[in-house]
UniProtKB/TrEMBL annotation:
GO MF assignments: catalytic activity
Alphabetical list of Pfam families matching this protein: AAA_28 (PF13521)
Stated name of the protein: NadR/Ttd14 AAA domain-containing protein
Source organism of the structure: Sphingobium ummariense RL-3
Domain of life: Bacteria
Domain NadR/Ttd14 AAA: 155-308
InterPro entries assigned to the protein according to its UniProt record, in alphabetical order: Cyt_trans-like (IPR004821), NAD_biosynth-regulator (IPR052735), NadR/Ttd14_AAA_dom (IPR038727), P-loop_NTPase (IPR027417), Rossmann-like_a/b/a_fold (IPR014729)
Length: 322
């Protein structure tokens, strides 16, 4: 059996790290990846450990959080310290040390292993973690799926029935060349009818949240949401006069909510319930109260046709998400 070893901060993991780790995994029988962090790192170490485990489920991915010197000039015993760390986390003999940095040769010598450099000149993948931290959206193609939710931003359409959410959502998604999460409440009602219970609403809310989490790794910088559990909470109040405690515990709020006004004509599509002027106004007030209760960032969207789309785009630009 050949054992390989590599380490890094992976702050965050990027396509160059993926190349390094996949290459290493293909050349050894067992690969150990050590994720190192310090308490004041800009990205929490446990989160980076989680990302690396998601990216490389067949490797042995372990974390190291001790405060130790990061470069040889920080401590005269830098190399003995790191030799001890590696031998502690990997007591078995190491056959190959993989790295894209120059330290790899010395580390390999310290632990009695061969050194195998992988793309040290960054010719295959010209990217660095520092560059991604400075401008994540500018280097989006180099950010792996599990890491993307950390940098992605969500824009949620919020508001009562017949306000144009389901028409606006795909148009916004197309404008930003990204995906959208459709309104799961509509899917549920089309399948099972509109005689809803509180349990049905919780199922709708949790499924919509799960779909959002599933799509974030695949999105292009932004993800458009056609409602989310905050709108389901408004539905609960309209239908039952109360909201389940689950809605207060939910913390997956979008980065920006677009509250669509009731300035469009009512259209009965077979799944809508509250069509009178009074009920539409009440529904809008409750929807707005849910946003204020959650303390989220939101903006009005008004107008018909192209004006409505431009109203949404202006709100997105004002929020710095365009």
């Amino acid at each position: 059996m050949t054992r390989g070893f590599l380490l890094g901060k992976f702050m965050p993991p990027h396509a160059g790290h993926v190349l390094l780790c996949r290459t290493a995994a293909a050349l050894v029988d067992e690969l150990t990846i050590l994720v190192c962090w310090l308490p004041d790192d800009p990205i929490p170490g446990p989160l980076r450990l989680e990302w690396m485990r998601a990216l490389f489920p067949n490797a042995r991915v372990i974390g190291h959080d001790a405060v130790v010197p990061q470069t040889p000039d920080e401590h005269p015993d830098f190399w003995p310290i790191w030799r001890a760390i590696v031998q502690t986390v990997h007591p078995d003999p190491i056959d190959v040390v993989f790295a894209s940095e120059s330290y790899g040769a010395r580390l390999a010598a310290e632990v009695g292993a061969r050194f195998h450099p992988v793309d040290p000149g960054r010719e295959a993948v010209p990217i660095s973690s520092r560059a991604i931290r400075a401008n994540p959206w500018g280097h989006w193609p180099h950010i792996p799926g599990p890491v993307r939710p950390y940098y992605a931003r969500t824009i949620c359409l919020h508001g009562p029935e017949s306000t144009g959410k389901s028409s606006l959502a795909p148009r916004l998604a197309a404008s930003f060349d990204t995906g959208m999460v459709p309104e799961y409440g509509r899917t549920w009602c089309e399948q099972f009818g509109t005689d809803l219970t509180m349990d049905d609403l919780l199922h709708i809310a949790t499924t919509h949240d799960a779909m959002t989490r599933a799509m974030l790794p695949e999105c292009n910088r932004r993800l458009i949401l056609d409602t989310d559990p905050l709108m389901t909470a408004a539905w609960a109040r309209m239908l039952f006069g109360r909201r389940d405690p689950w809605f207060d515990r939910w913390r997956g709020h979008a980065d920006l909510y677009l509250l669509l006004d009731i300035d469009l004509p009512w259209i009965d599509d077979g799944t809508r319930l509250f069509g009178t002027v009074e009920r539409r106004r009440l529904f809008l007030d409750i929807a707005r109260e849910e946003l204020e209760r959650a303390g989220v960032r939101w903006a009005w969207v008004r107008g018909d046709g192209e004006a409505r789309f431009e109203s949404a785009m202006e709100a997105i630009r004002a929020a710095g998400l365009a």
